[in-house]
């Protein structure tokens, strides 16, 4: 049985060829799956009964299934734990914003990048996700939103995993998400976040996709960044900032630098000034994220006073910056926390 979930029109044409199914049928079937949210051929009523029965003998349509859903008290954030056929699970987050509905997509199950502040890396990486599995995350959330006559409008590749370490599948996923027969999401509404896989930032630049690049910087110098993000030892800050500058210059799209603010680690005025020097004259924006504490790590959120002082310092140096609005702390929205609990409990047989 072939699972055709995530197939685009071309791939559907290919698999249907040997069954003598005319190509216009592929478009109808794609419409049933991705637009009308049907995963059973029996519901595809504009296909003949014979065809529906024949298709069901050879093909199945299996997006991931829900294990658990948590909704924040303010109803703005929902977190979904989704599971694929091989029982590997990932977290996907829906954030209801004033400009649309944004989905935070995981690109790997777990992560082995080892960032010190991140829950996703605590259990390592189980495996990378295929393009159609990432699409499955978006599809699931979209089918939930459809119940409210809404749909997914924005994507951020900021869930578990390093997207640029799963490069080919991530690029395929971006194409599937954009494809008007599938999700039809504008590239301009997609943000890809990287911890700093420098060579693949240059590769991404050559794809000519008008997506936003977001660089998880989190430190203004190698000393602090080496301690927080092991990838910095391979691709130091100077090379990363140069890649970000090239990306901005070539694509004419503003690069976002994510900066998790951690009490007494990277939140001083000295660090703010260093950061301003790094980004001077760049088409850049700094997104300051006061840390969502991770129990397993001893990192704390700075006081409001320190957060504002950091922001003020950047603004005084003419660096565009904002403090990210806090969403979903009551559903453990820091990536990886829900999955970690589930994986640990499953291993214990609970
Ligand atoms: S922050 Fe991103 S790259 Fe770093 S460990 Fe977490 S998921 Fe991986």
Description of the structure:
It is a single chain. With 350 residues, this protein is α/β, with parallel strands linked by helices. The chain is 37% helix and 20% strand. The protein has helices spanning 9-17, 23-35, 49-58, 131-146, 167-178, 198-206, 222-228, 231-234, 237-251, 269-279, 304-316, 337-347, and strands at 2-3, 59-60, 65-71, 77-83, 89-97, 100-104, 108-110, 125-128, 154-157, 190-194, 212-216, 255-261, 284-290, 321-323. The strands form three sheets. It has a ten-stranded mixed sheet, sandwiched between helices. Strands 1-2 form a two-stranded parallel ribbon. The longest helix has 16 residues, at 131-146. It is elongated. The mean pLDDT is 92. It binds iron/sulfur cluster. Iron/sulfur cluster is lined by residues 111, 113, 115, 118, 120-121, 160-162, 195, 216, 335.
Characteristic terms for this protein:
single chain, 350 residues, ten-stranded mixed beta sheet, two-stranded parallel sheet, 37% helix
How are strands sequenced across the largest beta sheet?
3-4-5-6-9-10-11-12-13-14
Q: List how many beta strands DSSP finds.
A: 14
Number of helices: 12
Let me know the largest β-sheet: 10 strands, mixed
- Give the amount of beta strand, in percent: 15-25%
- Gap between N and C termini: 31 Å
Catalogue the ligands. Answer: iron/sulfur cluster
Q: Uncertain runs with pLDDT below 50, 5 residues or more?
A: none
Shape: elongated
Concise synopsis of the structure shown:
With 350 residues, the protein is an alpha/beta fold.
List the helices and strands and how they pair.
Blueprint lengths: L1 E2 L5 H9 L5 H13 L13 H10 E2 L4 E7 L5 E7 L5 E9 L2 E5 L3 E3 L14 E4 L2 H16 L7 E4 L9 H12 L11 E5 L3 H9 L5 E5 L5 H7 L2 H4 L2 H15 L3 E7 L7 H11 L4 E7 L13 H13 L4 E3 L13 H11 L3
Parallel strand pairs: 1-2, 6-9, 9-10, 10-11, 11-12, 12-13, 13-14
Antiparallel strand pairs: 3-4, 4-5, 5-6, 7-8
Helix pairs in contact: 1-2, 4-5, 6-9, 10-11
The structure holds iron/sulfur cluster.
